[in-house]
Write a structure and sequence with these properties.
Number of domains: 2
CATH topology of the largest domain: F1FO ATP Synthase
Radius of gyration: 22 Å
Strand content: under 5%
Structural class: mainly alpha
CATH class of the largest domain: Mainly Alpha
Largest sheet: none
Shape: flat
Distance between the termini: 23 Å
CATH superfamily of the largest domain: F1F0 ATP synthase subunit C
Order of helices and strands: HHHH
Helix content: over 70%
Number of helices: 4
CATH architecture of the largest domain: Up-down Bundle
């Protein structure tokens, strides 16, 4: 089980390093070697295989231990459940950030040209920000079920 978590951690770190490398290099001067496409595909395959392996092999450990009240220790299953409850908030916050950026820039441009459009642009920004609130509500509901 630990080798699988280490393999997945290695895959995540590799994806992060690749993303930082590709982000810091200018797109015009970026010429990837011929082997990079299969390497990124292999990295993605290892990541997905580690995820599936954790689900298949780690499910026994998640349900094997019974929760003891007042023990002070968190079992592996409880830790995975808490991480799973936080995922909706994380993904919805990222989605809201992606949505609010262009909407905010466009609303500022629209308000500059026509100040009477302030109300409409606030509604659009509120709808985009609501995505994060929905994810937070789902996380709270999931935490109540744990």
């Amino acid at each position: 089980m630990f080798w699988l978590a280490a393999l997945m951690s290695f895959a995540i770190v590799g994806l992060i390093v690749t993303g930082v490398y590709l982000e810091t290099r200018p797109a015009a001067s970026l010429q990837l070697p011929r082997w990079s496409k299969p390497a990124v595909g292999g990295q993605l395959l290892v990541f997905v295989a580690a995820q599936v392996g954790l689900l298949l092999l780690g499910i026994d450990e998640a349900f094997a231990e019974e929760a003891t009240a007042g023990a002070g220790e968190v079992s592996i299953g409880m830790g995975i459940a808490i991480l799973g409850a936080g995922i909706p908030t994380a993904l919805s916050t990222i989605g809201a950030g992606i949505a609010v950026g262009p909407i905010g820039a466009a609303s500022l441009a629209a308000i500059t040209e026509k100040p009477e459009t302030l109300g409409r642009t606030l509604i659009y920004l509120g709808l985009a920000e609501g995505i994060a609130i929905y994810g937070l509500v789902i996380s709270i509901l999931l935490l109540n079920r744990i």
